[in-house]
Structures are given as structure tokens and as C-alpha cells.
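User: Here's a chain of 178 residues. Predict its fold as C-alpha cells.
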Amino acid sequence: MARTMRGNPLLTAAAALALLAAGGAGWGGWSWYAAAHDESAAYATTRDEVLAAGEQAVQNMNTLDHRDLRRGLDTWQDSATGDLLAQLTGGRARFERQIQQARTVTSAKVLSGAVTELDTRAGRASVMVALRITVTPPKGAPAAKESRMLGELTRTPEGWKLSALGQAPVGNTAGTAD
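Assistant: Prediction complete.
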């Protein structure tokens, strides 16, 4: 009297669908786990963190208001580590005098940026950041210029910080044959 699965097409279809659903769920779970633990995803996340930290630090280092000099220089120091931090700390008093005499306000806006190198194991990275820097003198109109900066970053317990900063070369720097 008991009906078998073979005799009931509805029961057979339900069992087949359940089997497919279980297989799909298993595959989906495995795919999700693999993606979440993929090294390339972690690398991409770190690259994004480096870019954000680098852009912010380069912007910080190109922004300074003589009316709030202490806060601006503290921000510079908070953005730096290593040799760059030592340079900023060592030359701070002299630099404060120069800015107070010049009475300028400098602001920077990031136009674009890119991570050019990233070594997650060594905790080092390099970025290139394009900025628009506006300098407002005490008298006269503000002057804006675009600049490209190269920054080296080092991972610290507080996050990624600039360890070196310089101007990027512009134009053809290689010698040309005549």
C-alpha cells in the first residue's frame, strides 16, 4: 500500500529540486568562503586603504594656514613617520617663523591618485597624487597651480603614514638623441 517515489512524479520532482537546492547552497557557501579568504581581495582592500591614507596625507602636507599654524603643523606631524617626521619635527620652529612672516594660506585639493607600489609584507607603499594647490597671500589674489607629488608610505600601528614626500618629475626626463 505504500507508494514508492517512482510511482509519484510530484515527490520525485520535489526530491530533485531539494537535491539541486542543496547543491546550489553548498556551492554558493564555498564560493563565498573562498572569496572572503582570497588573498587578492585582502590585497585590494589594503591598496584602497593605502590610497586613501596617501591622498589624505599628501593633501595635509600641502595645506597650511598661518592663522592656525600650530594645528596645521600638528596635522603634518600626525601624517608622517620615520625620516619625514624627524625633518618636520627638527625644522618646525624655523618653519613657523617663515610662515608667520609670509602670512599665507595654502590649501590643497586632491585631483587624482594612484598606488604605484605596494609591499604588504614589508609594510611599504608608494603613491602618486595630483593636487590643485591654492596659495592666498596677505594681499592680492589667490594663485592656483597643479602639482604631482610622489609619496612613500609606511604601515604604523596607527595606520599608513608618509615616510617621504617629493615632487614628481614632469615631462620627458630621459635624454634625447640628436
